[in-house]
């Protein structure tokens, strides 16, 4: 018998559970091991930052006491990216050099592909002046289809409006079809889309990076 799902502010005791859900769905809904040998590297390079440095914008979905989803975000993306480089990426590089992660052929192939994608400007465009906030939402595989993602996003949007943030964006791909439908249903619109070659060696067919945006306040 399952209980009602509660949306609640982040609690540090759930950090490991947040990372677990993130890593279990990092590869288009599948576990991160599809493109990295060591999931700790993914967690330290991605969602771990939000738990450690942007926890005031991290929301949890709890069913009884079990974490079934989360939303991570920030209100100032340019500032967040500067903090991310110094607080997460710089220490991570140090740990890589010290051999703290298990690095294999998949990891190096992913790193080369992502670096090449950045050089080719394959990320979808966003105007940070209009849409300074961003979000990332994730729901455990066995809890999808229950409206949890929608509730997490709506809770975060209320927080942003109370803070008078003018707009918010998110990044995804065309392969996340159910998520794209959810974003559009909530009111997000597709701002930009670019074909990327990052995942060519992992999936068949083209992958399209997408940016979706939502204006929260009238200009």
Molecular structure report:
The protein is an alpha+beta fold and 219 residues long. It has a single domain (5-215), classed as Aminopeptidase. Helices cover 39% and strands 23% of the residues. The protein has seven helices and seven strands. It has helices at 15-24, 39-45, 47-53, 77-97, 105-119, 148-162, 177-186, and strands at 5-9, 59-63, 66-74, 133-139, 167-173, 189-196, 207-215. A seven-stranded mixed β-sheet has the order 1-2-3-4-5-7-6, sandwiched between helices. α6 links the parallel β4 (133-139) and β5. The longest helix has 21 residues, at 77-97. The protein is globular. The relative contact order is 0.15. The model has no long low-confidence stretch (mean pLDDT 95).
Overall mean pLDDT stands at 95
Strands, total number: 7
Query: Approximately how much helix is present in the residues?
Result: 25-40%
In order across it, which strands form the biggest sheet? Answer: 1-2-3-4-5-7-6
| Helix/strand/pairing category | alpha+beta
Radius of gyration of CA atoms, rounded to a whole number: 17 Å
Shape: globular
Task: Provide a quick synopsis of the model.
With 219 residues, the protein is α+β, with helices and mostly antiparallel strands. Helix content is 39%, strand content 23%.
Task: Describe the secondary-structure layout.
Elements: E1 5-9, H1 15-24, H2 39-45, H3 47-53, E2 59-63, E3 66-74, H4 77-97, H5 105-119, E4 133-139, H6 148-162, E5 167-173, H7 177-186, E6 189-196, E7 207-215
Parallel strand pairs: 4-5
Antiparallel strand pairs: 1-2, 2-3, 3-4, 5-7, 6-7
